[in-house]
Amino acid sequence: MDILVFGATGNTGSLIVNQLKEKNADFGVAITQTDSAADLDLEADQVRIATYDDQASLTAAMAGVSTIYFLMPIKPDMVTWTQNVIAAAKDAGVKRIVKQSGLTPRIDATSDLIRDHAETDQMIVDSGIDYTILGSNTFFQAFYGNLPSIQAEGAFYAPLGDKAFSNVDINDFAEVAAEVLTNEGHSRKTYALTGPAALTSAEHAKIVSAAVGKEINYVNVPKDAFEQALSGAGFDAWTAKTFADAFDWFATADYETVTNDVETILGRPANSFDNFAQEFAQAVNS
Length: 286
What we know:
Blueprint: E1 3-6, H1 11-22, E2 27-31, E3 47-49, H2 55-61, E4 67-71, H3 78-92, E5 96-102, H4 112-125, E6 130-136, H5 147-153, E7 155-158, E8 164-165, H6 170-182, E9 189-193, E10 199-200, H7 201-212, E11 217-220, H8 223-232, H9 237-250, H10 261-266, H11 273-284
Helix pairs in contact: 1-6, 2-3, 3-4, 7-11, 8-9
């Protein structure tokens, strides 16, 4: 087995798995329970069991693997788990780590999540193992989280003020990840994967309004109200606070950077939010 994908059952990981299938890549997945891989439609020998707090299980899962894709779970133990993954990769003789990260995370961020991305990125860089880091802002598809309030009220809510963000399509990200995993030329590189434009939430609302055919409004809300809304939506207290703190940081830091990294790697332009809005409009109007 050449490639092992961690986080394969999530939104991004499952798309990467599909891309690797299309490339007929020699790959497998590392998951915590065998039945959780059922939807991935893989052969039994492509599925390995490991948990992030058990370094021995990680080492066993990586046996014979040359490259791992590491999507860090958003949990309180993120840094410790990354240490375990790196140690296991060294023990197993892994040659390269491809890590999913945020766009230019900073160690001085007021968000634990952003600081953890910055710290764990540096841990990978300093590990002595070859690496590629794929950083991005949030994905266009996160906008589906706004679907209930848009359908019910014609509005969506976030504590982002008038800040612009160079978000990217999750499908572009997954395609880039598969390209990086299966091709050379990406050694010790950090990519900033963005869409073709940086847009504010008000601009998102305008584009979605045009696609839907009715007015959709963006409502800026305080961080505390956003955290309460996340808790009300079913997120546990730690996750709700973590995401609220991250959004609070997003509203003050610079996330407007637009790059051509997607086009450089894929040989085509990155998908635009305008195109995504046409897809999203179908869900709104359904």
